[in-house]
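Q: I'm teaching a short session on how sequence maps to structure, and I want students to see two examples side by side rather than one. Could you give me a first protein with its sequence written out and its structure tokens following it? Keep the formatting plain so it prints cleanly on a handout.
A: Of course. Example one:
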Amino acid sequence: MYGIPSEERDHFVLGCCISMATSFTGMPQDYEVTRKLWDGRIPVQFVLDNSEFLQRSAKPFCTMIPRMSYFPIALPRVLQYFNTIVEHIEPESVWLQYNGQPLKWHYPVGVLFDLLKSDDLLPWTVTLRTKNFPKEVMRCAGDALEISFIQSIKEADQLKHKANIINSMKSDEHKQLWNGLVQDRFDEFWSVNKKLMENSESEAILHIPIRIYEAGRPFRQVLISPLDESGRRRTLGDVLRIVHPEDEVIAISQGILVPLETPLLWMAENFCYLDNFIHVVLTAPT
């Protein structure tokens, strides 16, 4: 469970298990779970690419990045540090790499870590590059990340409420969601985001926003409702039986091995990332 302080891990796992068990009775959103997920951090060590920069002895820049955040939000601090060591680095030319693989800006940091990190060694060493910009990575100039983030929230609410809630919000509420993310302000973000979690008779959650990731392939989305035809709550296992009907896989979300019997509705309300999607990484059993 990377990115959660070690002294809190046992307590966090216990809280998750209790919440998952009691969620079958229809309990509301679990503050403790959402708060601890928000506080999850990953230690990252940024290094310059040796083939592009002559200052090979430049010390790495080390920082703790929220799992829920995105690399471009941390990048100004990274460049501020390296620009004191090397000739000025243009932000528009920067891309990041881990273990030979380009990192996609619009994926949450926690998703990239769960998807690509192949060992338990920390900090996570990420290489900063400026040449041969990869075609599969979108350039993150200006407000591109903010637009992408808000668009993901809109897509999630389209699935949940036919976009009724996000479209009824004012533009300053959209801005508050973004600012809450950038400035790492839990209360500011959730005072707006809680509206998107509504699940009442008048605004029931129709479908679960979920994205499934596997190494070496684009993510997949499954259109699935919270309940089946008999009224039974659908679970994470139901999704996996759709995407991998014959294979046994392990599901990781937020750095945690998630029980397959976990209800999707509970995950949508408590375990989603800030873009309101559940992001699940699948791996083969070892």
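Q: Perfect. Now a second example for contrast.
A: Example two:
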Amino acid sequence: MAQASLTLKGCFKAHQKRGFSLAMAPGFFRKYAYCGALTAIEEEGCYSVNAATGASAGAIVAGVLGSGKRPLEMKESLFALRREDMWDPSFFFIFGLLVGFKLRQTLEINLSPVKHMGDAKVKIAVTAFDLLRFRTRILTEGSLARNVAASCAVPIMFQPVFINALPHYDGGIYDVAGMYGLEKVHDPADDGLVVNLMASRKQVKHSVLPPAIKNSGATILTIVLENVPHSELRNNLP
């Protein structure tokens, strides 16, 4: 165990001068686990993110990083989220139980002062699934809160989020590793390391590696945060 930790730290240290790109897989309550992992990386003096991307829960963490918060500051934003902050049931159950307006409002507050993705403190991209074109879109422009909300719009639970008059659902429908957005924000000249945080080994099996990353020559470090029970996370929500 000690040797594994040393190897992991050594990998970060070897790329610390150039920094790394961060990709985070979807996983519902896994944003808390991602926060913990990034906090540990920062406490070890290895945190140097140049770009962040993700889907669903990963998109929330990417958005918070884009707002300028470091991992040690992130906990306050993430643990401030309460169920009532996103609970706005639709009177007519069409396309989803929750309207999603309250979620977007909450995101706008927690992602402030950054409102637009182009103003993010680090390069960020999130993914959402275009229902009409039936494909995953990489979002790097426009409202940060809206795009993160679109990436979190779990089918049936949330109504789709409209972007340019097109309905979008959860980015994790296809982007199961949260790496798809790296195609837009990863710069091999700046980032020699790609760190991929995942919630389970199943996501590794079904992950989609963008060709641009596969051919970039970057070192890909996958960290699987297994055995983090959803029930325990839910019970500890404020």
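Q: What should students look for in example two?
A: Point them to this: The chain has one domain: 2-226. Also worth mentioning: The longest strand covers residues 123-130.
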